[in-house]
User: Which sequence fits this backbone?
């Protein structure tokens, strides 16, 4: 197909490592034309978040409508949504704009827990996000986020992580990328877990990569979900996309130390591969 149009619905990162700035780089690195709708203006850098400003949801809806009224969207991803009101606004737009089976692919990065371990959403927003998940084709939680979605403590093993992913996949009838980056060890194993259908669950699909020793991994979650959205729009299966994304991310993290961005946890090198 022609170059697909991919939409990011997320917050900003002025230093460019995460949020919509990372999404746009990831879209481009995987052959997509990137677009973005801003849910929140975030004053942050490589050392942390200082302040967040969420524009009125009426303006959020105006942004969403302005894109979908004019441009064919082949895939979308959501990142930081932040509040129950924002999540509901995005959900209403999605439901009113697209109808199956012609709707775009949707990848949801459930931005719920910061790298520090702090919860990013209040109880109402968490409930709204969980209610939003059935619209997704793929969700990409990290270990603590998957635990919240499964109503359990953070997994300490790949087996426990897969079991939580199965629970979430079945609850929302969505494919889950169970990311093993928080589990430790010399290898990082990411696994696609599929929902069961009529009591039968398709075989899970895992890809492993050596762990890269660097602190410069800021924005990996954003970048991974954006890459999956782009590759899906280009016609890849989820399994083929995982192989490509793991290879790309391995190179992007390995080259991250070439960049000199900030004094904290720096970004990955999106275009090194």
Assistant:
């Amino acid at each position: 197909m022609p170059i697909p149009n991919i939409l990011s619905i997320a917050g900003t990162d002025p230093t460019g490592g995460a949020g919509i700035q990372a999404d746009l780089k990831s879209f481009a690195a995987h052959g997509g034309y990137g677009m973005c709708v801003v849910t929140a203006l975030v004053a942050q850098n490589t050392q942390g978040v200082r302040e967040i400003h969420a524009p009125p949801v009426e303006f959020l809806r105006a942004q969403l409508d302005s894109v979908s009224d004019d441009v064919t969207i082949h895939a979308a991803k959501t990142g930081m949504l932040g509040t129950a009101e924002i999540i509901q606004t995005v959900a209403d737009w999605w439901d009113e704009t697209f109808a199956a089976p012609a709707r775009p692919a949707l990848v949801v990065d459930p931005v719920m827990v910061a790298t520090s371990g702090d919860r990013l959403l209040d109880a109402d927003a968490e409930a709204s996000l969980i209610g939003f998940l059935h619209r997704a084709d793929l969700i990409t939680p990290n270990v603590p986020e998957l635990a919240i979605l499964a109503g359990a403590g953070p997994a300490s093993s790949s087996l426990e992580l897969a079991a939580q992913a199965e629970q979430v996949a079945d609850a929302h009838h969505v494919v889950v990328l169970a990311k093993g980056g928080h589990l430790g060890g010399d290898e990082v194993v990411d696994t696609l877990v599929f929902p069961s259908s009529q009591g039968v669950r398709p075989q899970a699909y895992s890809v492993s990569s050596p762990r890269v020793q660097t602190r410069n991994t800021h924005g990996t979650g954003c970048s991974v979900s954006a890459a999956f959205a782009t590759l899906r729009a280009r016609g890849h299966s989820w399994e083929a996309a995982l192989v490509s994304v793991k290879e790309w991310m391995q190179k992007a993290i390995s080259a991250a130390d070439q960049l000199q961005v900030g004094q904290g946890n720096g970004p990955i090198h999106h275009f090194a591969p």
Summary: The mean pLDDT is 93. The two ends are 23 Å apart (CA to CA). The longest strand covers residues 33-45. The beta strands are 5-11, 33-45, 48-53, 75-78, 105-108, 138-139, 175-179, 187-193, 205-210.
